[in-house]
């Protein structure tokens, strides 16, 4: 960031060597705007792998980073729902972006993006297609399993039972959306609600969560960058 | 079996088999009863002649429960000289119990496992741990094999046979060798810290990349499973004699670690009876009772 402007952003899969992934991501970031590492005055790191950061940087928790990032994008944000690859969290915050309370789901894959990835594999559908597929669904099928492993078998039985892929995709999104909704109820729900994290790119999931909560959700462009944005904003103050 | 496994790389596949006990004559019997236990992963059938075991079989449950139930029952009958019409009363149990077409009654697998364990190991059994394919139950019973209390986990694959199958596939270790392989370590490493099977898979891959041996990773996984199951037992309370039924009772790596945690040894299998059969045997015993009542 420069001043109050986002200059550039980049992302990449962590893979095996997370340190190398971090360095590559920063390289891409700088290349885009023609700057070098020396031009950066402050770096702040956040997220699950923040301890691996090779930079002599300030580190903040993802809860704080999400709150600050959301507050910057939507000053009206009071409840934040972050659905990531391996964990999900909900945060309630003040009008200044200060954290009041938060709830975390990181013990079970059923409450994160991994669940949808595994189901897409079972359904033999690309992850990007899951959203559009489920939006075309015309009927509700309930899913009984919570566990990702058991849900895989359930999806296979639904396929054998000749259920259309569109309805199965919706059942998958409804199932995870219900779990995220109860995680949201663990913090105080106050308008406006903001949905961030990579799973917010899935339009089918956004629709399911909107129905599960019965409230409108604000989804920013680049929902997966909000934590990084929050980190970039923190050091400036 | 071995050849087929290597060809298709189905490391999770366990052997299906049947057995007839010689010297049991059904032709002079008063009552021939049967029990069918249609589990989430395996189906079992047992035939009793006046409460003595004549034959049994165990096979994988397919996508159709009625078909699996008929398949294991037919297989158990094979070579005994009997047909289904000679079996006077059949009780269905297990996850698919409502789908046993020839069962006159259904009884929950919790009651059946307690009754079956009482038969296999005798009236001193007080605690039964049934580690099945898709759930795990800690059951307390009295000297008659009657259930006094139980707790179960059927929501999460961690601590169930399904979880072990996933790890067997991931590690390319045949499922029967998971236990013995995990015991080849000098000292147990820290258990895998994640409960979820999906996350445990990523954790196992990370450990392998760090240079851990297969044995070490499996040891860490088996300890984690033992710890999780021990928690369930602790909540229901363990009293001697303690027995383990269900498929995972054959995994020595988990059983040994579990015994170390709770400080109580489990009784070993009796009369070469497979502990996975406890539910089917219990169902056949209930069938014997019911047939007697009917007459």
Summarize the structure.
The radius of gyration of chain A is 19 Å and the shape is globular. Chain A has helices at about 20-35, 60-75, 115-125, 125-135, 150-160, 165-185, 205-215, 225-235, and strands at about 45, 60, 80-85, 90-95, 100-105, 195, 215-220.
Describe the structure.
The complex is a heterodimer of chains A (237) and B (295). Chain A has 237 residues and is an alpha/beta fold. Chain A is built from eight helices and seven strands; from the N terminus they run αββαβββααααβαβα. The longest helix of chain A is centred in the last third of the chain and has 21 residues, at 165-185. Chain A starts with 17 loop residues before the first helix and ends with a helix. Chain B has 295 residues and is of the alpha/beta class. Chain B has nine helices and ten strands. In chain B, strands 1-4-3-2-5-6 form a six-stranded mixed beta sheet. The longest helix of chain B has 23 residues, at 214-236. The relative contact order of chain B is 0.18. Mean pLDDT of chain B is 90; it is low at 1-7. Classes of the chains: A alpha/beta (237), B alpha/beta (295). The interface between A and B is medium-sized, with 15 and 16 residues.
List the helices and strands and how they pair.
The complex is a heterodimer of chains A (237) and B (295).
Chain A: H1 18-33, E1 44-45, E2 58-59, H2 62-73, E3 79-83, E4 88-93, E5 99-105, H3 113-123, H4 127-135, H5 148-160, H6 165-185, E6 193-196, H7 203-213, E7 217-218, H8 226-236
Parallel strand pairs in A: 1-2, 3-6, 6-7
Antiparallel strand pairs in A: 3-4, 4-5
Helix pairs in contact in A: 2-8, 3-5, 3-6, 4-6, 4-7, 6-7
Chain B: H1 2-8, E1 17-20, E2 32-38, E3 42-49, E4 52-60, H2 65-77, E5 89-93, E6 105-106, H3 109-121, E7 127-131, E8 136-141, E9 147-153, H4 161-171, H5 178-182, H6 197-209, H7 214-236, E10 242-245, H8 252-262, H9 278-294
Parallel strand pairs in B: 2-5, 5-6, 7-10
Antiparallel strand pairs in B: 1-4, 2-3, 3-4, 7-8, 8-9
Helix pairs in contact in B: 3-9, 6-7, 7-8
């Amino acid at each position: 960031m420069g001043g109050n402007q986002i200059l550039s952003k980049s992302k990449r899969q962590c893979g095996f060597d997370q340190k190398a992934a971090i360095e590559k991501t920063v390289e891409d970031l700088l290349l885009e705007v023609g700057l070098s590492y020396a031009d950066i005055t402050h770096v702040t790191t956040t997220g699950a792998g923040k301890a691996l950061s090779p930079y002599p940087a300030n580190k903040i928790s993802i809860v704080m980073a999400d709150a600050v990032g959301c507050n910057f994008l939507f000053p009206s944000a009071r409840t934040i729902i972050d659905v990531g690859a391996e964990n999900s969290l909900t945060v309630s915050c003040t009008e200044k972006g200060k954290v009041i309370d938060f709830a975390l789901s990181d013990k079970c894959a059923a409450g994160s993006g991994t669940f949808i990835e595994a189901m897409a594999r079972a359904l033999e559908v690309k992850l990007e297609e899951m959203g559009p597929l489920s939006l075309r669904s015309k009927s509700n099928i309930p899913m009984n399993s919570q566990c990702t492993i058991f849900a895989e078998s359930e999806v296979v039985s639904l396929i054998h039972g000749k259920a259309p892929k569109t309805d199965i995709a919706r059942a998958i999104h409804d199932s995870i959306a219900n779990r995220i909704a109860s995680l949201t109820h663990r913090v105080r729900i106050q308008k406006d609600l903001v949905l961030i994290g990579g799973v917010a790119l899935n339009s089918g999931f956004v629709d399911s969560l909107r129905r599960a909560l019965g409230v409108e959700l604000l989804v920013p462009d680049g929902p997966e960058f909000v934590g990084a944005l929050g980190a970039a904003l923190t050091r400036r103050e | 079996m071995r050849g087929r496994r290597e060809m298709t790389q189905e490391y999770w596949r366990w052997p299906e088999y049947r057995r007839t006990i010689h010297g049991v004559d059904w032709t002079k019997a008063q009552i021939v009863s049967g029990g069918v236990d249609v589990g989430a992963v395996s189906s079992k059938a047992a035939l009793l002649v006046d409460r003595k075991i004549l034959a049994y079989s165990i096979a994988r449950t397919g996508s159709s429960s009625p078909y699996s139930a008929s398949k294991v029952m037919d297989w158990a009958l094979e070579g005994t000289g009997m047909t289904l019409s000679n079996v006077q009363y059949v009780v269905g149990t297990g996850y698919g119990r409502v789908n046993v077409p020839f069962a006159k009654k259904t009884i929950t697998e919790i009651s059946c496992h307690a009754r079956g364990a009482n038969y296999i190991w005798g009236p001193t059994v007080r605690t039964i741990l049934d580690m099945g394919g898709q759930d795990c139950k800690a059951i307390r019973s009295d000297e008659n094999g009657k259930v006094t209390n139980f707790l179960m986990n059927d929501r999460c694959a961690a601590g169930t046979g399904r979880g072990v199958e996933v790890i067997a596939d991931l590690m390319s270790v045949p499922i029967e060798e998971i236990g013995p392989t995990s015991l080849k370590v000098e000292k147990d490493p820290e258990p895998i810290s994640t409960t979820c099977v999906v996350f445990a898979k990523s954790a196992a891959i990370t450990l392998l990349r760090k240079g851990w041996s297969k044995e070490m990773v499996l040891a860490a996984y088996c300890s984690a499973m033992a710890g999780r199951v021990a928690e369930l037992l602790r909540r229901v309370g363990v009293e001697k004699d303690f027995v383990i039924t269900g498929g995972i009772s054959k995994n020595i790596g988990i059983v040994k670690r579990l015994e170390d945690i709770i400080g109580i040894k489990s009784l070993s299998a009796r009369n070469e009876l497979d502990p996975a059969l406890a539910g089917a045997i219990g169902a056949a015993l209930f069938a014997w009772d019911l047939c007697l009542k009917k007459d």
